[in-house]
Amino acid sequence: MAALVLAGGAVAQNAPTTGGGFSLPENPNFFVKNDPNYRKATVVVNGEIITGTDIDQRVALLVAASGGKIDDEELKRLKLQVLRNLMDETLQIQEAAAQKIEVEPEEIEQTYTRIAGQNFGQDPKAMEAYLTKIGSSPASLKRQIRGELSWQRLLRRNVQPFVNVSDDEVREVLKRMQDSKGTEEYRVGEIFLSATAENREAVLANATRIVEQLRQGGSFVGYARQFSEASTASVGGDLGWVRLGQLPAELGTALQSLQTGQLAGPIEIRGGFSIVALIDKRQVLTADPRDAVLSLKQLSISFPPGTTEAQATAKARAFADAVRAARGCGTVDAIAQQQGAEVVTNDQIKARDLPGPLQNLVLGMTLGEVTPPFGSIQDGVRVLMLCGRDDPKDATAPNFEQIQGQIEDERVNKRAQAYLRDLRRDAVIDYD
């Protein structure tokens, strides 16, 4: 009887609440406390082992992408997140294998080589040395590539054929684009974290910590690849060029207030939270002046050690006066020789590839004009002279197939999330 009384008292003190169909006490009494140090080094997902080394090598990629600026508490959280990612990746690879979908080693190597060139500017052997140096490994990155390719092929076979986009839908989008000519469109990066009513607070806290890391210099692409649950994770979260009407209203509102290079979030949308970064913006179906191809000559002078600021200012002023007196680019070399300046010519540089403050300045110049001198005593002083400019043609609208593909991708992404939830629910997981 005493036991019954105690049990009844416990229930009375912790009145149950309902959430997601469960009846849960507000302040549960735990009979056994979890020891966070008790968790073993390996996790077995449907018979396949994920080791502590697997986790550490994947975490090393994120740490390197963030410049090593991750404290111990954040590192613990990253390890848990990476473990969840590896578990999902394992389920995706296993499901592809069960469906007789194979990814050949040659394909993985091709993707690995492409990543080496695009993201590291190195050949594969140099990237292998880099990965080893930061505590990761080529095998870890190749496994991630295998997971992404396996999942993409699985979706193409089991999901994409059942996603229908009518011709009328595509034509409606094309019409809206023509009607929107001249309005702004945005190139957006997104990290999406799904959430339910039950785990909303935990996901929000996770998203907030990701934003903090990004603001401290973390790599958006790196975090998107490891954390985002959208299909764009494999391309670093890049949504491509979109108009505000194509995005949830909450994201559109946030993007309008951003400058290029800024990020916002976490933003609650249907199904979870998004973190967005504004990569670039332009006007719909309108030529972007920043795509103009320029021919520039750069003249630069340097200062010997010990030069004072007053001496540098005087020399820079004389240098600028001499360059302004030039009669077009044909006289630049002679003036450079007189001033002891170096000349560098680039006939194929886009205005958008110049540093932000110089873009509008150069685009406002006419042939033969020069920028004001810029630089420092340490780096020297330089000016740019505009020698030629080829303006871009008006942008063309995406074609029918491109629009259709974009709508399909959005719908496939929603079904992919449900597919992965089913795989998680049916998985047999042992903490060994």
Automatic annotation (TrEMBL):
Signal peptide: none
UniProt keyword 4Fe-4S, yes or no: no
UniProt entry tagged with the keyword Transcription: no
GO molecular-function terms, A-Z: peptidyl-prolyl cis-trans isomerase activity
Pfam family, one: SurA_N_3
Sequence ranges assigned to domain PpiC in this UniProt record: 183-280
Keyword annotations from UniProtKB, A to Z: Isomerase, Rotamase, Signal
Protein name per its UniProtKB record: Parvulin-like PPIase
